[in-house]
UniProtKB/TrEMBL annotation:
Domain of life, source organism: Bacteria
Record-stated family: Belongs to the azoreductase type 2 family.
Annotated SUPFAM superfamilies: Flavoproteins
Stated name of the protein: NAD(P)H-dependent oxidoreductase
InterPro entries: Flavoprotein-like_sf, FMN_Rdtase-like_dom, NAD(P)H-dep_reductase
Keyword terms, alphabetized: Oxidoreductase
Broad class of enzyme this protein falls into: oxidoreductase
Domain NADPH-dependent FMN reductase-like: 8-151
């Protein structure tokens, strides 16, 4: 019998067309081993502003929220790659996460988190803040699946490939740690 691929959902925290985080995420998607299908979540900008008043019966939910939850439920693991905005999580990404606190899609979900920034600390503050939020939602984040990428503009070539050997090796470790977490799940 044919085995179904495992689904890895990529979520970029940047809505910018030329986003370095989205490009880095696509590159990571291309590193997934055989048997893993990488999909990119495209609906971040379509989600309404979260309000507990709107978060009730599934049948009454905004269509974009239903689709967001369905894409998460169809995933075996998640990779989030995000910029740091004013030392925190970009509002659109935090909004998306707030929509799934009550519905618990991140519960026990193997999750990798990457922050990428042109600055030397690679967005260490957003990585910390995002990790706190995801752990509050009981996501499983292996140590090696958490990575801050500094000087990101120099790390990605015009073809979208990462050439820096240290970053490449950290990304390989991240993909391996995520694969292990899926097996242990
Ligand atoms: C509103 C705003 C706030 C920012 N705040 C930070 C910050 O706190 N730390 C940081 O490292 N970079 C910060 N940056 C710079 C971003 O890291 C940089 O623009 C990055 O390229 C954005 O990611 P993207 O290319 O994926 O869109 C900020 C950028 C914007 C637009």
């Amino acid at each position: 019998m044919e085995q179904r691929s495992l689904v890895i959902l990529g979520i970029s925290g940047s809505l910018r067309k030329q986003s370095s985080n989205t490009r880095l995420l696509s590159f990571v998607g291309g590193m997934m081993p055989a048997g893993m299908e990488f999909r990119m979540y495209q609906g971040l900008a379509d989600l309404p502003h979260f309000s507990p008043d709107l978060d009730g019966d599934e049948g009454q939910l905004h269509g974009a929220v239903r689709e967001w939850r369905e894409e998460l439920r169809a995933a075996n693991a998640i990779v989030i790659c995000t910029p740091e905005y004013a030392r925190g999580v970009p509002g659109s990404l935090k909004n998306a996460l707030d929509w799934v606190v009550s519905s618990s899609e991140f519960m026990n979900m193997p999750t990798a988190v990457i922050s990428a920034s042109p600055h030397p600390d690679g967005g260490a503050a957003v990585l910390q803040s995002l990790t706190l939020t995801l752990k509050m939602m009981s996501a499983v984040i292996p140590d090696e699946a958490s990575l801050a990428v500094p000087f990101v503009s120099k790390m990605i070539g015009p073809d979208g490939n990462v050439t820096d050997t240290n970053t490449l090796s950290s990304l390989l470790n991240l993909v391996q740690a995520l694969s292990q977490a899926i097996k242990g799940h």
